[in-house]
Structures are given as structure tokens and as C-alpha cells.
Write a structure and sequence with these properties.
Radius of gyration: 32 Å
Strand order of the largest sheet: 7-4-6-5-9-8
CATH class of the largest domain: Alpha Beta
Number of helices: 7
CATH superfamily of the largest domain: MoaB/Mog-like domain
Strand content: 25-35%
Distance between the termini: 44 Å
Low-confidence stretches: 1-6
Number of domains: 4
Largest sheet: 6 strands, mixed
Helix content: 10-25%
Amino acid sequence: MPNPSPNPFFDVRMRGFPARTEVAVAVELIRKRVGPLGPEAVELDAAAGHVLATAVTATVPVPHFDRAAFDGYALRADETFGAGPNNPLTLRIVGEAMPGRPFARPIGPGEAVRIMTGSPVPAGADAVLPAESAEEAGDLVKVVEPVVPGKNVGRTGEDVPAGSTVLPAGRVLRPQDLGLLSSIGVGRADVVRRPRVAILITGDEILPPGSKPVGYRIVDSNSVVLRALVRRDGGEVPPTKHLPDRPDAIREAMTAGGWDVLLVSGGTSVGREDHAPRLVAELGELPIHGMALRPASPAGIGFIGGRPVFLLPGNPVSCLCAYDLFAGRAVRLLGGRSDDLPYRTAEHPVAEKIVSAVGRVDYVRVRITPGGVEPIAVSGASILSTTVIADGFVLVPRDREGYEPGERVTVYRYDE
């Protein structure tokens, strides 16, 4: 059964939006209604890029025995004091220690054990003399350089002490993190389940990716962009569904289940065939439709069965903008990540005036030149190539009429 909407639905088709929601209000709604999914255990080989659901505590130290850091001789450090090239001291070699094969007994006074890197340091020894600081002759070793206690010995727990927290919850696992987990005996990691993000592309005129534009039909580019963005943000993407402008087909896809986030691109604005907003309101709730934002003003945010649904405009630049500012936040939050925009930023002076209008946020594509930031001259919401030639974008706040030359702005860089 459809869920009753807490807000009466206003059908905007062929009428326009009665009001537009501020970007900050939309972002706050997402943060309030969306949180991390539950944990799941994954093998370490598959855990890179996942987010740890719980902190990991070491139950064992690493290393769990004192080990040699150099090839050489395990000995008592105080028996080398005073040694030098002109005053060599002699110790008797009583055996050897190899990786995985320790010397069988404690060493006594005047004794040394030949030892290889990574081998257990024998009981009674407290230092390792590097091979280049000694001369071996038969069962004797001449010490020509003193060592201090602990020299060239990897102590128990010096890498990871037992009981220490090695990785915190919320950590995006990197390859070296997996190595550390393996070193303490962890074979599976408890991670936040990756959100499953379904994508619906609507429109009778839309051809699937890989097609050639023919007649008055256009090739879908939005799903290709969205799928890459979802993967960037840690989500999983089942096959995209391309649907005609038929309410029954769109409703069936929305209720199919198997998703944590639903992205609908196309059919989300005020046209006669824009059915998605009404269907979301019918099946759940649509608290936001229409944003004080350029481009992407027709974007909307709803919920079906408590799961977020994002209405993304069909124009490619608007779709990219709405995903990054709204839908991407939900994907990242569900996966246990920060909802901050996942772009590196840099401050630059404005070289050419950036024009905006008070009362809306502007997503302005810009180039970075030796003289500063310049807005892209052609800025239509359907001109996807502007995002390719742009170095990044500037977000102009709702209370500004843009930026004058010489002012400094934050640029969100498209490149990594």
C-alpha cells in the first residue's frame, strides 16, 4: 500500500513550482533521514574501498616475538663494549637462528648466534651485531664495533601492541590497512554494506548508451555518468532501466525493490509527461520538489518505504549537479562515508566576473587560468561538454550576485 504523504502533493505539470527549496534545507533533510546501512563481513581480498563498521582491536602483538632487524649475530650487548678495529673482541658462535627456526637454548657469556633478518632473537641476547661489523673465522666471530642493548632488534609489539585500536570505525580501507589487519590475524572485516543504487532513465526519446543518435532521438549519457559517480561514492549499481514515458512502467520499476537509493533521471520537471514526481508522492512522500539552484532547479527528494529517491533533471549538467549536491550525499552516508563533496578544493582569484542572482545557489563551471578563475562562456544545462573543458566548479551562495575580479573563490576540481 502507498504510504500517506505528510505534505499534500502539488502537481506541477504545466504549472511550474509554487516555491523552491533552499539547497541548505535539502542537505539538512538528507542528513536527518539518511544514515549508514548495517554491517557485513567481507574477505580481506575484497575489502579495499569498503568502510569499517566497527573499530578493530589487536588481540595479539606484532611482532609477537623479539626478532632480528639485520643479518648478523645475536649477542649480549655489554660484551661488545670497547670493541673497535684496533681492539676486536672475540665471541664463540654456538649456532644459528633462521626465520621460523629459533636457536634452541639461551645464549651464555661469551657466546653469539648467527642470525638472519626476521629470526627470533635467542633468550639471553639483547642485541644484533650486523654482519658488516664483524669478522667470522671458523666458530669465532671478531666484534669490531660495539652495539647497545636493543640495537637491531624488533621488540615484541613495537609495530602493533596487543589491545591497541589499529583502525577506527568509519575508515575507508586502503591496501596497507588490509595488510595490517592480516598481520594481526584478521581474515574478514566487518564493513558497512555498500548501498545498492538503482537508476531509472525515462523518456520516449531516449536511446541506450552505445547507440547512434537517429532521427529525433538522443542517446542516454546520464546513466553512464551516474553509474561512475555512484561507484566513486562507494555504491553498487545494478543494470540501468530505460523506461518510456508511461506511468505504469515507471511505477513498476519504482516498486521492484532491491535498492537502497533510487535515482530517476528525466521526467522529473513540469512537463506533461513528467510522471515521476506524482508517482513518488503516491508511493511514499515527496517533501521536496524544485530547488533554489541553477542548474538542477527541477530536482526533487522523496522517500519510498523510508528509502531515499532522487529526482534528477534530464539535462546532463543539471543531472550531474543534482547528484553531487544531493543524491551523492545519500549514497556516501548510507555507505558510512562523509557526505562532504568528494572533490579536492583550491582557492583562486577571480579573473573574469562570475554572474549569479540573489536567492539561489549557482553551480558555475570554470577554467583555471594563469590569471585566475574564468566562468565557461557557454553554460547551458544541456551542454555536457562544458564540464569536460572545465577544470571544476564554483558554488555561488544564495545571498550573492556573483564574484568580482580579484575576489578569491573555492574551486571544486573535477580531476582527482
